[in-house]
Design brief:
alpha/beta; 2 domains; 8-stranded mixed β-sheet; 8 helices; binds iron/sulfur cluster
Length: 330
């Protein structure tokens, strides 16, 4: 049995879990909001530890990390469980399969070795929220880093600062799933009343742990596409994470109005000074924001660095931030 590591004693009977920002309080036999943690006599039992919901080998670009080890092969892996109530309603991976035969266990060391065997340059936690699998993710990142693999998370950043600080020494990159920039957006698309802690975690990952961060936002018409909200969101990316932080904007649903929202968001991001803005089109190249020289091409799922040397545009010699080394930039 695996038990939670980030636990705070409250009194003789109650303890709280500090893996995600819900900070659930448990008494005996209580279940956490994520449905993956249960209090027993020994602590908080992890129901999903090592149970793998999906695993795939493919290009890192598939996880919206486009300035991060371009064109490298990555092992993408994940488990069951989400922290956001909205994800519980939309995803079949919010609950463990009821039948034991459908539960696949993969030891963290075996997963790290699998990445090596498949000649993957890195490992990305891409399915399910990493906060609710914190202990396994920590084991996996530590072992993968020891094997000189890069590590990354696709996350809504609902981790606590303590959880981030546990993962930080072994973490290279984050794709931040940012649902909007208002109480209303997070209430509707996340189901959480308080969301600004997400911003603090992302900024700490970038500034303290020197992680590469890219931001992904799925726009929904009349939900999270208000002009002032988008301006505030873009301003936070620019000021909190840096102008070279890529922002990926995707339509959250079909329809001409959402497509127009994506176009408007791109315009706002350009006006606000973000250097790298990507939409839903296939084969989008990366161009130098200073001279428009092509830096990275992307065709049929294959990315090629064609115009950058030593993190500098080969034409205008301006500095371009691209993460291609296991050594973290300071
Ligand atoms: S991971 Fe989050 S939702 Fe799950 S028990 Fe811990 S604090 Fe609660």
């Amino acid at each position: 049995m695996h038990t939670a590591q980030l636990v705070i004693n409250i009194d003789n009977e109650a303890i709280s879990c500090a893996a995600c920002q819900w900070r659930c309080v448990f008494r005996l036999n209580d279940t956490g909001r994520c449905l993956m943690r249960v209090r027993n006599a020994e602590g908080i039992e992890l129901l999903n530890y090592g149970l793998i919901s999906a695993a795939a080998v493919g290009p890192i670009e598939g996880y919206r990390l486009w300035h991060f080890f371009p064109d490298s092969k990555v092992l993408a892996i994940g488990s069951w469980g989400y922290a956001f109530p909205a994800d519980h309603q939309r995803s079949p991976y919010a609950r463990l399969p009821p039948n034991d035969r459908n539960r696949r266990y993969l030891d963290a060391e075996r997963a790290a070795n699998f990445a090596l065997e498949k000649l993957c340059r890195g490992v990305v936690w891409a399915f399910g929220e990493p906060a609710v699998s914190y202990e396994y993710v920590l084991d996996l990142l530590r072992l993968s880093r020891a094997a000189s693999r890069y590590t990354a998370l696709v996350t809504n950043a609902y981790l606590t600062p303590e959880a981030l600080d546990g993962l930080g020494p072994y973490l290279d990159g984050i794709c931040l799933d940012l649902r909007g920039f208002s109480d209303a957006s997070y209430s509707r698309l996340g189901g959480v009343p308080e969301w600004r802690g997400i911003l603090d975690v992302a900024v700490r990952a970038r500034q303290h742990w020197h992680c590469h961060v890219e931001v992904l936002t799925r726009l929904h018409h009349d939900v999270n596409d208000d002009i002032e909200e988008l301006r505030a969101l873009v301003g936070w990316i620019r000021d909190g994470l840096g102008v070279q932080t890529p922002w990926h904007i995707l339509p959250g649903d079909a329809g001409a109005k959402t497509a127009a929202s994506v176009a408007r968001a791109r315009r706002i991001a350009h006006e606000s000074g973000l250097h790298f803005i990507y939409g839903p089109e296939v084969n989008q190249p990366t161009r130098c924001p200073f001279c428009q020289y092509t830096l990275i091409t992307r065709e049929n799922g294959v990315a090629r660095i064609v115009g950058i040397s030593s993190n500098t545009c080969e034409k205008c010699m301006q500095e371009i931030y691209l993460r291609t080394s296991l050594f973290k930039p300071r």
